[in-house]
Amino acid sequence: MNEASPIRRRTTVRMSTSDKRLNDSALQSQYQPYKDAAWGFVNHWYPALFSEELPEDKVEGIQICGIPIVLRRVDGKVFALKDQCLHRGVRLSAKPTCFNKSSITCWYHGFTFDLADGLLSTIVANPDDPLVGTAGITSYPVEEAGGMIFVFVREDDYPLEDVPPLSQDLPIRFPENSERFPHPLWPAAPSLLDEGAVALGLHRTGQSNWRIACENGFDNAHILVHMENTIVHALNWVLPLGILPDHEEPITLTEDEDGPKGLIQWLFTDRWKPVMENPQLGLKIDALNGRFYRTSVVLPGCLMVENWPEEHIVQYEWYVPITDDLYEYWEVMVRVCKTDEEKKAFKHRFDRVFMPLCLRGFNDCDLYAREAMEEFYADGTGWDNEQLAATDVSAITWRKVASRWNRGIAKPGKGVTGATKTSSIRLRRLAEGKAPGYFVEKIEDVNSY
Amino acid sequence: MLTATESDQTAVDLGASHVTFTFSDGAEHTLSIPTGSSILAAGLEAGLPLLHQCRSGTCSSCLATLVEGEAGTLPGSNSSLFASEMAAGKRLLCVTQARGDCRFTLGYDSTGGQQVSAAQTFVNAVERVAADVIRLELELAEGSWIDFRPGQFIQIKVPGTDQTRSYSIASTPAQLPKIELLVRLLPGGVMSEWLLNRAAPDAVVEIAGPHGAFFLREGEKVPHIMIAGGTGLAPMMAMIDQIRARPGRKPPILLSFGCTSEEGLFHRDALELRQHWLPGLSVQLSVDRGPASDPVRVGNPVEAVGQGGAIDPASVAYLCGPPGMVEAARSHLEALGLAPDNIHSERFVAS
Fold it and tell me: What value of ipTM does the predicted structure carry?
């Protein structure tokens, strides 16, 4: 240290929500890890693509928790590697180049990686380089279930032997949990892992932090935004104005050692009271025509709505972090179809009714609602300035349980899409009318720029 | 280049050379390394804390200075050093082989390939957490930096004096540029006098570090036992927070923490939070003198370990406190079946 130079305070302030907490309570500290998870919880299973989006030999590039991931299907099996070349960081998926069935090659300088373990297996123009066989890129475990591809998004040094089964990051199952969490008003909800499970749905990019999106999914006070949705009127549902906790345990945690970690809400039991009237505003619900449903959520942010939108169907949702201000919104309906006829009938009803009126229509409202909260939270101050109320017991419980059981807090993306919000490429793409999204921008025509 | 390659090839017949490594703290290690082998590879194999990254002659992490003897670039390898740097004795150990006995100096100490450096800091907060304990939060000044491993300590130059004092860091490297310390107040101590009477936010403090071979061993999945007396809790806080943040399955941790009296027990809220965040952490609190209310027990933190059930003899242990406590803890744990090599300790003396 040069004695003559003045000693100065650091001018670069690190993003930290804890520094200027205006509402400093023990409760907030309990979920500090959640507040730090702007880029998501890492070392978890996330949906990456629908199986049909990745036919044989196709290569796709996506980003989850600030980690770029390339997927390739070979002989039916899906492989996932870090989509960032070891050499100079080029995204392999931008111009997929594969010379055989066991590798993927960077289209720029020819670094070639083994699909199974990510090791550098050769370099096109330098097969004897000492890096070959010793260096590599991170590989990610992959599972397919019910027509969805799941990737275990891990930190580079998360040990493969510690990767838990997919079922630990999916909702609890029925009927094995029917006694513990009775559901007298509807049949046992199917699971994506059930034999014959068929998942139909869509995924699209939302412009908010993933936590804002996730908390919306099981927020019992947000029925209001859905009052005028077509599906509600088409099926003559009459929803209450809201529901309030009315029991010492309105929510139960699911924390079994080898099970998913999260919470389940005792909806449509005496533990939650429907609000039927607000005399001051002249609002009154006369006769409920309930759609009975129950919401639960497990790490890393997978919502389950049982008995929704009709019997024998369950709606799953994921809010997969792409960056700290983008998430991939997955809306999936699952039904067990034992025969091709059943499958066809489900697909028909899904295409005609559920897709336009539920996953679009009804859930479009949720996208607007999340966006409306985003700016308040985007700079980190919203987490300190929010004034939560009694119904927010759901969000608080989730924040605490997620703080306790997450397998890692994703570090802010480095050297990846969206890490620099004002990069010239990002701005040019915006000018070209392309919003930041989930998929890599592919080079389609090699002879034109 | 051609001549160097030729002489390297003739050197292959010479067999092994004695290569001596001198670290910045004076520690020396001599290895017999077969000619034609990478000095870095041989050093790492022998467990020397040599800094390195690319292992292919590019990144310069393994830079060392040749001070005696001859050493050249391995055949078929390239070093990114300039000819002028080579002439000044600089070598990248990953692509260097010895040509006869030689000696290298390294710009970092032997406690884990770390550079000990001096740094300027600002005081962010001075907070009394118990009658005789102060939590001191420092922040590295612009342009200053140190690295450390959870468990290590730094030296502080007490402002306005020529005295230095050593304190374990209670925060993790991820929290840098902030550094948190737990300081025990001693009547008449120079540090205590400064903390009580003069320390205030924005005061400038010079520190140096990191120091010590007491740090969290990475990658251990066996149960961890931590025994802390008084401000010996500081390195344990750093290690617990590090374990919480690291990827992979977390080991179960038993922390046995003792103070003299219940009023003196500090950081109970902080420990409760850690228990909320880390389901595998159990905490046993002890006080030397009663009365104590449940769950705090009267007794010392050493004997508390093993009372609640059998201890896995494969456990690793970390001990920090006064010398008497550390000695007692070591014998107690060895009696419970822990291997001496798996017991790491740091003792502090009051000053």
Answer: 0.74
